[in-house]
Design a protein that fits this description.
The chain is mainly beta. It has a single domain, classed as Porin (Beta Barrel), CATH 2.40.160.40. Helices cover 5% and strands 57% of the residues. The protein contains one helix and 13 strands. Strands 1-2-3-4-5-6-7-8-9-11-12-13 form a twelve-stranded antiparallel β-barrel. A hairpin with a 7-residue loop joins strand 7 and strand 8.
Amino acid sequence: MNKLLFFSLLFITSSVCGQENYEIQVYGAQTQQKSSTIFELHSNYTFDGERQEIKGVRPTYHALHETIEITHGITDNFELGFYLFMNYLPGYGFNVIGTHLRPRIMAPAKWKLPVGLSLSAEIGYQSAHYSAETWSIELRPIIDKQWEKLYISLNPTLGVQLKGIEESSAPAFAPNIKANYAFFKNGAIGAEYYGDLGPLNAFEKGPQQSQAIFATFDLLNNTHWELNTGAGFGLTDATDGFVFKVLVGRRIYWNKEKK
C-alpha cells in the first residue's frame, strides 16, 4: 500500500516543479538536536539555464552554486542556521554573493501531533547581480510524516521581498514537496518538487512560473553524515532546464552523552 501511495505521488508531482539554486532542499520538520551542529555544503551545477542577463541579473547557464550552511540546536525544539552563498560563473569568476540567517522552531513532542510540524523564518541579503530580490524574508511552514518506509514532507513557503529590482506588492507562494521510499536499508529514492507560482494576489501565467522536479537519493540511518543528491528538470520556460545537486552534511555532537 505504501509503495502504491509513493508512486502515485511521484506521478502527480512529475506532472506539475523554485527556490533559487543556492539551497535546493525540502526541509523536514525535525530541528537539529540540542547541543549539536551540522555543517552542510550545498553544491549544484546548471547544465542548461538562462544564457542572458535579465534586468541586471547574471545568467545561470553553466553556473556553479556553492552554499555553506551551519545549523546549531539551541533547545530541544529550536535551532539557528547561517548561510553563506557563493557563485562561480564563466566570464564573471567566483563571487561571494550574500548571507542569510534562519531561526526555526518545532512543535514540542508533548503535543503528540500526528505529523511533524515546524516553522522556519529566513532573512538575508543577496547581490543584485545574482538575485532580483536583494533583501528578503522567507516563511516556511514544514509538515512531514514518516510511515514504515515512506516519507513525505510539505513546505508551503511564502517569500516576502523587502528590497529588490522591482517592487513587490504581495508575498510569493513557493510550494515544495518531497516524497521518498526506503528501497534499501540505508537509502531512499524519491522525488522533490520546487515551484514558484508568483504573488498570492496574482499568480503568474503557467510559462512564467518556476516549476522543477528532481529525482533524488537520500542517505538514511546515519547519525553523523547526511547526503542528498538529485537531477532536476525544469518544466516551464522560466525554469532552468537541467540542474544537478549534491548536499553533504556532517553532524558534530558537542555533548556526547546526548548523541
